[in-house]
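COMPLEX REQUEST
Ligand: F0G
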Amino acid sequence: MTFSTARPPSWQVCTVCGNELLETDAAIRCRACGGLLEVRHRRPDLPGPVLRGLFQTRCCTRPDTTPSGVWRFQEIVLPTAGANPVSFPEGNTPLLYRGQIAEWAGVPELLLKHEGQNPTGSFKDRGMTVGMTQALRIGARAVVCASTGNTSASLAAYAAQAGLPAFVLVPAGRVARGKLAQTVGYGARVLAVRGDFDACLRLVEASSDLLGLYLLNSVNPFRLEGQKTIVLELLQQLGWEPPDWIVLPGGNLGNTSAFGKALEEAHAWGLIDRVPRLAVIQAQGAAPFARGFAGGFLQRVRVDAETVATAIRIGDPASWDRAVQSIRYTDGVVVSVSDAEILAAKRVIDHAGVGCEPASAASVAGIRHLTATGAIRADARVVAILTGHMLKDPEILLSAAGDAALKEIDATPEALARAVEQTPPE
Ligand code: F0G
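STATUS: Structure written out below.
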């Protein structure tokens, strides 16, 4: 269908064939051609400076205003969502400066947007609050996702709040313990699939409709509306003075898609007058998008993924086309870094007292790589997105530290004194 008369505030459109759907249509993909859907909003009635002022009055965590860093931007996220979204609240994450990390990465003006400070410890909460709100609006009876772990933890928490049964499919044996523990703890049904993430996603996409389960992976366009607010919030924190670069890890490419959309809209609607460039960083063993970029995106690349950063161990990213659009629109770049580089960056981030999970450290590893090649200039203003919390992946912390980090001693003053003396210097 197409809307012949005045447009509603929001609607959905197929990104492949342009078919239009009502905002409250429960379809996850276009019924005509199977393409991914996108939510579109009418240009807000208010001009950019007035919108910015409105967002500012709601900032940041006062319960009498809008305590969510997602719903603060409701006019450009989901204007018709109503006054009671399923919200923790989420967002309001800090923008940090740490000299050690900036120096290691090679850019003095490096800020870290720590999305691991969201309620379930990852940026997924920003998408999930919108996705779960939409699930209730369309009358969903249960929700489902495939996940490398963070989406599942977030889905489980928000489904518990919404009172909906939740099912998650994860690649058996390949999900970090912290994420699994959260998911089970919030009360979701965890199904460990004998296969990788890509197999899990294919399975839920093929079966969710038949089973009456509302799919809340990032192929669900409402998730991306929420994830746009990572960019909106960091722009607000910078006084709407855009950085030169925003750097993020890429897996299924939902965030890359959301970031491009946020920037396009922010520019079109007068919130910013300059568009930052995006740099997407993949792990070398899971780098189909980086390979696609190197080949001018002439073809879609699929790989068998392997990396220590299990969150981004994805070989066939679902949001490929939209992400290509984001890279083209922002004159962005896509590169890959080795697991060793990811772990080196993670060590620097952890030892600066910030901490993050391995996939998040790919951002900072990528900046070091891009400053070394000259793609990012040393005088650039850069924001790196740290996507997940340090405690998501406890095994990697303990195995990287080794046995010496957990020294057992007798409960005597002598043993303690000996141990203190023996402590190796940093
Ligand atoms: N960083 C973390 C910590 C993630 O959990 C993910 C994705 C990404 C980066 C990549 O983001 O997929 O939007 O490109 N995790 C998904 C999950 C796949 O199931 O939790 P993307």
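REMARKS: The chain has a mean pLDDT of 95. The radius of gyration is 21 Å.
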